[in-house]
Amino acid sequence: MSIYSGDFSREFSRILQESNLTCYKISQFTGLDEGYLSRLKSGEKHNPSPETLMKISLALTHYSERVTTYDINQLFKATGRSIIND
To answer: Domain holding 58: CATH number?
Structure first.
């Protein structure tokens, strides 16, 4: 288990809730399996690849103006990565 596993789940869930989006909607945009996205959200799966993170990020920003660069960076940081030099 990754030290970041709970962090990603928490951040992903928060962003989905705040932007009123669903795993189904994200899967429609990304082509990622809805079940996989649900497992990422629940914490059953963790530490998605950088490519998967980018797909999720693009979908989130496509569907919601509420999702900010800060939110996307928090998703990346939750997996031990970053898109912004702090």
So the answer is: 1.10.260.40
